[in-house]
Amino acid sequence: MEVLVYGAGALGSLVGGLLARAHDVTLVGRDPHMRRVRGDGLRVDGALEAHVRPRAVTEGYHRSADLALVTTKAYDTGAAAHALATGEYDAVCSLQNGLTEDRLVAALDPPVLAGTASYGARLVEPGHVRCTGVGTVVVGRLAGGQSPLADRVGRALAEGGIETTVADDMPRRRYEKLAVNAGINGPSALARITNGELHDGPGIEVAREAAREVARVAQAGRIDVDEAAAVDALDRVAEETAANRSSMREDVAAERRTEVDAIYGAVTERADERGVSVPTCRTIGSVIRAWEAGRGLRSE
User: Fold this and answer.
1) Is 73 labeled as catalytic in the residue annotation?
2) How are the residues of the chain apportioned to helix, strand and coil, as percentages rounded to the nearest 5?
C-alpha cells in the first residue's frame, strides 16, 4: 500500500517508520528531520527497532497515496486538510489528539476514518525516533459500524507490525480517547511529571475527575461512555505508558504551543452546547492557556 504520513514528528515518524518495513511510505514533515531522513534514513529504537528509508518531503501538496495518515498537532489540522485537498487519496485517517476528524471531513472528498494511537514516541534528534512504549492503533468508521475500508487500512497497519484493532464503535472510542487525553495531558504538563508519576501520585484524582467530565459530555451527546469506563481507560493508559512524558508535557518542556484547545477546548465547547458542568477541564485548560499567553505562544 502507498501511505503518506502528514505530520512526521514523533508519532508520525514512528508509525511511518514501522509501516515502511512493509509499504511504500512518504513522510511529510519539517527540516532538519526530513533532510536527515533523506540522507541517512530513519532510525527507530527503544521498544521497537528499525532502520528504513521512506521518502521524506517538506510539503504535502499535489501528492497521492492509497492512505493518508494525519499525525500533525491538532492546531495544524486546517493546514493539513488544505494540503491534502490538492492530492488524491482513497482514504484519510486521523491519529491526532482531540476531535479533529470533522474538520477533515469538511475539507476533503475521500472518506475520513477515525483513529487513535497509544504508542509512545519521542523524536530524539533529526532522523532518529524512539518508541517509548508499544501501544495499539485503533481505526474505524467515523460514525461507527462496519467498514471494509477500515478493514483494509487495519490490515495494512498490521502488515507493518503495528498492533491494530479495527473497531465498529469509534464514536465511543473517540470520547474515551479524549477522556484519557484530558486526564493525562494537562495535569502531567502542569506538574512536570511522567504518566506513571501522575498515576501513582496525588494528581490522579484531578486526572480521573477530568475523565469523568468528558464521559458526562459524551453522554449528553447520546454517546455511550460510562464514567467508570473512562476512568478505567485513563488508569490503563497511564500504567501502560508509565515511563512516558505526555505530548503536552513535552510541549511545555520545550516551551511550545500545546494542544490545549483541541483537548480542553473540545470538552468545554461541547459541555456549553449540552449544558454540562466541567469545572476541572475548564480550570486545567485556563491554566495551560495562561502559561501559553505568558510566553507569547497565543495570538488571541
Assistant:
1) no
2) 50, 20, 30
Do 74 and 261 touch, CB atoms closer than 8 A? Answer: yes
| β-bridge partners, 91 | 67
Give the three-state DSSP class for 154: helix
Q: 3-state class of 300 per DSSP?
A: coil
Closest CA to 56 of 43, 66, 74, 73: 43
Contact 43, 130 (CB under 8 A): no
Q: Which fold has domain 170-294?
A: N-(1-d-carboxylethyl)-l-norvaline Dehydrogenase; domain 2 (1.10.1040)
Q: Could you give the CA distance from residue 168 to residue 140 in angstroms, rounded to a whole number?
A: 6
Q: What are the extents of the domains in the chain? A: 2-166, 170-294
Tell the CATH topology of 2-166. Rossmann fold (3.40.50)
Helix 204-220 vs helix 170-191: crossing angle, to nearest 10: 150
Per the CB < 8 A criterion, the answer to whether 271 and 217 are in contact is yes
pTM: 0.92
| Residue whose C-alpha cell reads 506538574 in the numeric block | 191
Q: Which of 177, 208, 282, 289 is catalytic?
A: 177
- Do 12 and 29 touch, CB atoms closer than 8 A? yes
Cα–Cα distances (Å) from 98 to 175, 261, 265, in that order, read 9, 9, 9
Q: What is the pLDDT along the chain (300 residues), one digit of tens a residue?
A: 999 999 999 999 999 999 999 999 999 999 999 999 999 999 999 999 999 999 999 999 999 999 999 999 999 999 999 999 999 999 999 999 999 999 999 999 999 999 999 898 999 999 999 998 898 999 999 999 999 999 999 999 999 999 999 999 999 999 999 999 999 999 999 999 999 999 999 999 999 999 999 999 999 999 999 999 999 999 999 998 898 899 999 999 999 999 999 999 999 999 999 999 999 999 999 999 999 999 999 876
